[in-house]
Design brief:
Blueprint (H helix, E strand, L loop, with lengths): L5 E4 L1 H14 L4 E5 L1 H6 L2 H10 L4 E4 L2 H9 L6 E3 L8 H8 L2 E4 L2 H6 L7 E6 L11 H12 L4 E7 L12 H13 L6 E2 L3 H6 L7 E2 L25 E13 L4 E2 L5 E2 L4 E6 L16 E4 L2 E6 L7 E4 L11 E5 L5 H7 L4 H7 L5 E4 L1
Parallel strand pairs: 1-18, 2-3, 2-9, 3-4, 4-5, 5-6, 6-7, 7-8
Antiparallel strand pairs: 1-10, 10-13, 10-17, 11-12, 13-16, 14-15, 14-17, 15-16
Helix pairs in contact: 1-3, 4-5
Length: about 350
Amino acid sequence: MTRPTSVTIDTQALSHNLTRVRQCAPTQQVLAMVKADAYGHGIIPMAKQLDAAGVDGFGVACIDEAIQLREAGIELPILLLEGFFTEDELVTIQALGLKVVIHDKWQVDALKKLKEPITVWLKIDTGMHRLGLLPEEVKDAYKRLKSNAKVEKIYFMSHFASADEIHNPQTKEQISQFIKIVKGLEGGYSLAHSAGILAWPETHAKWVRPGIMLYGVSPFKAYTGSDHQLQPVMTFKSKLIAVKRLKKGEPVGYGATYHCEEDMPVGVIAVGYGDGYPRHAKNGTPVLVNGIRVPLIGRVSMDMITVDLRQCAIARRGDPVVLWGEGLPAEDVAAGADTIAYELFTSVTERVKRTYL
């Protein structure tokens, strides 16, 4: 018998979530984010499904991810979100027909060595203070790009720093600054990632860049994907492999961090941080056993977790468990582990079997 821990990826849910993007931004082109192995969902199957569903292009972090897509037969536009790291990469970029983000002045100069025309996305730092040209650097960089005969098209983009907080004024400040900077400069622009698509329609512009919402998760604190009519794409599953009847006061797990509050059933589930379940998940983090929410108790081990089965007393060895996904939002599990769903998805390890529906 194989270990019961597995991940199911629902490709139809992915298509549904793309439809929700289209409903929110009906006239925009959609650049789907498939970086980091499509947020842990599998870059090739996710890209193929999105391609078939009519997406307009893909965003990746680096050339290695772009190569995977091209070798899989993906012909749609691919944007390198971190641009190129060395001038030598320009040869591969042109061979693969990639688009590049320009976020630093040295990259502007490097483009002079191109042999064929290329489309660039000039990234502006409007307050994230990560990648991007500072506001006072934009016009000079734009002028130099326009004078380069090998630069075919120029788009503008920026990235929000606090968009997960709907009422945080920083987002509107960034929008205002971006519009002020690009005023009078020729070229389309893109501001809206998942949060912008859902909450700031004024940012939709020519291109939208959905990421986490494609995979069924809300980009906002205190919300879940279902609040936006999104469907979970990943369901992380396992089974109960033992049920113990413990006495009041008996400890559970490493370090004896939990003691039974009364005589109670405790379930042991075949999943742990070796599978990607967060080791720092706290007591009370929800787990779904037989469709009933029960709390995690004790420390997460490499291969096992333990749960309080008092609310599911009829549970038996072999019963199904959902760690997150269908019936249990990843956002709720992430909250119990002081993290975000993005990290949960990208942390699932290679030993976990994946099935695509």
